[in-house]
Amino acid sequence: MLTIQKLQEYGVNTKEGLARCMNMEKFYFRMLGMGLKNDSFDKLEKLLAEGNLEEAFEQAHALKGVVGNLAISPIFAPLSDLTEALRAKKDLDYAAAYKPIKEFRDKLVAEL
Questions:
Q1: Which of 15, 36, 43 is nearest to 111 (CA)?
Q2: How far is Cα 25 from Cα 17, in angstroms, rounded to an integer?
Q3: What is the pTM of this model?
Q4: Between the CA of residue 6 and those of 60, 65, 74, what are the distances in Å?
Q5: pLDDT digits over 62-85, tens only?
Q6: What helix, strand, coil percent values describe the chain, rounded to 5?
Q7: What residues have CB less than 8 Å from 97, skipping those under 6 apart?
């Protein structure tokens, strides 16, 4: 089960995330669950596998906002890098770049 302490151990900036949720822990966890279970993660993975970089950029950019607002730093940083690479249409193994994002997100979802 996820706790504030466990999130902090994972590198999540819970102080910032809680502040955005009016320091209401129950509300923060509700928003965290909604954000992490967002189907845009699966859509992004599929679009990257298909090589649809334009739509993948839109999904990544939207997710960056979600995880940024929740202060999920371990996802935000690599997702920001991925978003900028997609914006620039860099030659990159996007599936490999997305893998740590997916793994961390899946880990948190399993513990919710």
A1: 36
A2: 9
A3: 0.91
A4: 26, 23, 13
A5: 999 999 999 999 999 999 999 999
A6: 80, 0, 20
A7: 78, 81, 82, 85
